[in-house]
Amino acid sequence: FKFWLIDHNVDGFRLDATTQYFTGEQDKNLEMLTFINNECKKLKPDCYIVGEGSWGSNSVENKAYQASGIDSFFQFANSAKNTGYIQQAVIQQNAKTISTALTRNKENADGGIEAPFLSNHDTPRYIGSVNGRKNSDNAKFAMGLFQQLAGATFTYYGDEVGLASQSTTSDSFYRLPIRWGEEDSHNCDIAKLGLYGVSASKIDESLSYPYPDVQTQLNDPNSLLNYVKKANLLRIQFPEIARGDSTLVYNPSSPFAVIQRTYNNSTIYVAINASINTPMEIDYKQYGENVVEELCTKNKVQRKEKDSTIIVIPPQGIAIIK
Question: Is 230 left (phi over 0), alpha (psi -120 to 50) or beta?
Answer without folding.
Answer: alpha
